[in-house]
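Hi! If you just cloned this repository, the fastest way to understand the data is to look at a raw example. We've pasted two of them here, unedited. The first protein comes first, obviously.
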Amino acid sequence: VQLVESGGGLVQAGGSLRLSCAASGRTFSSADMGWFRQAPGKEREFVAAISWSGASTFYVDSVKGRFTISRDNAKNTVYLQMNSLKPEDTAVYFCAAVNWGTWYVRFWGQGTLVTVSS
């Protein structure tokens, strides 16, 4: 599986961005997917996940109510809608194929940079 993120950029605090992750390979529709982020000088952290069917989602507390993960299996794409962005959301965002619950990553994308200005 190859994963390619897009949609990052510079946005003011309070603004919105939608990240996309396009996957290659026939196994995407059966893969649980997640988003992670890594801020400058910090470790990579889990942000959100969605089950292969889209029926289940999970979010880290810091983004609940602001971020929404979704997927379109017909387009082999997973999305992360980010609203009410804060400067502390500034990071490189990565999508990944994960094991549900443990968030163990099986495949990483290359990342897309999100910068939120105050």
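Ok, and the second one:
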Amino acid sequence: VQLQASGGGLVLPGGSLRLSCKASGSIFSVFAPSAMAWYRLTPTNQRELVASTTTGGAPTYADDVKGRFTIARDNSRKTVYLQMNDLKPEDTAVYYCNRITNPWTWGKGTLVTVSS
């Protein structure tokens, strides 16, 4: 299984980005039932769970992104999205997605830099 995250970049504080993470490989039958999450690796090398989604369930968010980030998934495309609004410098990190239980091999992630 390969996880390819994209959509990162340099953005001003208060700006928005939409991240995508596509899973590829023979996982169609297991993607939909899998709880998926976006994580971020901060400049201080801390990995944080940012948001999670399950098919048919309510999403969850870390306290510091609630109201600003929205996670979504498209099972037919094996893709998870993260809409990030009102970005802050402390959101700067490399963002990854993965399955929460029995994670697949981690992809390279996508770098988000929030700076003026």
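That's it. A detail worth noticing about the second one: The mean pLDDT is 95.
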